[in-house]
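Entry, Tuesday afternoon. Goal for today is a structural model of the target with coenzyme A bound, before we commit to ordering more compound. Inputs were pasted exactly as handed over by J.K., no edits. I checked the ligand SMILES twice against the vendor sheet because last time a stereocentre got dropped in transcription.
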Amino acid sequence: MKDYFITDFSNPLFQAAFKEYFSELCINVKDWDGLFREMNEDEGTAAFLRTEENGSVIGFIQFQKSEMKHWFFSENIGFIREFWVSAKFRGQGHGTALLELAEKYFVENKVYKTILTTDTTPEFYVKRGYIRDYSYQAKNEDEVFVKLLK
Ligand SMILES: CC(C)(COP(=O)(O)OP(=O)(O)OC[C@H]1O[C@@H](n2cnc3c(N)ncnc32)[C@H](O)[C@@H]1OP(=O)(O)O)[C@@H](O)C(=O)NCCC(=O)NCCS
């Protein structure tokens, strides 16, 4: 197995995995190049991609380090954006390992809280220390989950 840290989303392996993920979700994209370009332009966005030794993709986790600002407080948060393990590799610990890689990356970069929305796998996150946080509202109107990393 190999884990790659990616900040350039023109990576063909990442693109192939991402397209498979969106086709599973039945999301049609007209302008793939535009979508991957936007990812590159979106500040602080990165991913870990896991492959088998032969190069076939196991899965990826894409995330973004950002800052939320209030007049008195500011908050560094680690947004888990997209997360997918190829169906034939599910249930073998790869998802947990990818999430841990992202969490470790955040702590190393002085981000001590992760945040995400999910309408597919809330139990997966709850088992891994995430809690529903009703104080946040998300654009997609899904429930918001957070985890304190430190
Ligand atoms: C969620 C996902 C990344 C987990 O990857 P994985 O490699 O199967 O994860 P792991 O093997 O580390 O853990 C599997 C655990 O998650 C649970 N799980 C996996 N998919 C689940 C689902 N769709 N609903 C509920 N639980 C799920 C398994 O029951 C297992 O439970 P356990 O903690 O008792 O072992 C993977 O199932 C996936 O890609 N799903 C489709 C895309 C998706 O929903 N992404 C998340 C968007 S927020």
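Residues 83-85, 90-96, 118, 120-121, 123-124, 127 surround coenzyme A (CB under 6 Å).
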